[in-house]
Design brief:
- The structure holds two protein chains of two kinds.
- By secondary structure, chain A is an all-beta fold.
- In chain A, strands 2, 4, 5, 6, 9, 10 and 11 form a seven-stranded mixed β-sheet that branches.
- In chain B, strands 2, 5, 6, 10, 11 and 12 form a six-stranded mixed β-sheet that branches.
- Chain B is globular and about 40 Å long.
- The termini of chain B are far apart.
- The chains are: A mainly beta, B mainly beta.
- At the A-B interface, strand 5 and strand 9 of A face strand 6 and strand 11 of B.
Chain lengths: ~120, ~110
């Protein structure tokens, strides 16, 4: 029973390029969360998705960032025209029901470096 | 808006001693849940302990226990008999329909 899979583990992009981060939730999980962790900081909520729907994207920058969780396939966090300030670790987490008694399972994160 | 505050960026504890990590939160909700997560250098997020806000009894998991003060909106984590493997970042988290995390406390365990 594979856990939450994120890929790539490390991603290097030049300024202006696009970054695509993938997250495959645990089998059967339909609730996906994306968090950003800047160096030596906590996890900042970005977006909460539930199969094909964005439930809450209040933590997403208004421009350049988008997320989706299609009916089939992984959840994708897309960052267009990356800038140095986008360098961070991006974590995905999934939950079976989104309720408190359904544990949150984290992936190991994707470390994005913008050069 | 819900916020979670961890006012101690870094703490140190001697091996076998006890340490308490503080966490406060702000919410207008009456029904919510609180968690402590541990993040070792591997970056993996590990659930340490959780507390339902409607329960007055403090949660306990082996050497880990919480002091939950609902009126004060405080949720501290106590680690007893600290071990070298406890060294990590610790994040307090709050859940209604989404998880909000604090900025973390780095715990160092001294041999």
């Amino acid at each position: 029973n594979a856990g939450v899979m994120q890929n790539p583990r490390h991603l290097v992009r030049r300024r202006g390029q696009e970054a695509r981060l993938r997250c495959s939730p645990m089998k059967g999980h339909s609730h996906v969360y994306w968090y950003r962790q800047l160096p030596e900081e906590g996890l900042k909520f970005m977006v909460y998705l539930q199969k094909e729907n964005i439930i809450d994207e209040s933590g997403m920058p208004k421009e350049r960032f988008s997320a989706e969780f299609p009916k089939e396939g992984p959840s994708i966090l897309r960052i267009q025209q990356v800038v140095r300030g986008d360098s961070a670790a991006y974590f995905c987490a999934s939950s079976l029901t989104g309720r408190w008694d359904s544990p949150l399972h984290f992936g190991n994160g994707t470390r994005l470096t913008v050069t | 808006a819900q916020t979670v505050t961890q006012s101690q960026p870094e703490m140190s504890v001697q091996e076998a001693e006890t340490v308490t990590l503080s966490c406060t939160y702000d919410t207008s909700e009456s029904d919510y849940y609180l968690f402590w997560y541990k993040q070792p250098p591997s970056r993996q997020m590990i659930l340490v302990i959780r507390q339902e806000a409607y329960k007055q009894q403090n949660a306990t998991e082996n050497r880990f226990s919480v002091n939950f003060q609902k009126a004060a909106k405080s949720f501290s984590l106590k680690i007893s008999d600290s071990q070298l493997g406890d060294a990590a970042m610790y994040f307090c988290a709050y859940l209604t329909y989404k998880y909000i995390f604090g900025t973390g406390t780095r715990l160092k365990v001294l041999a």
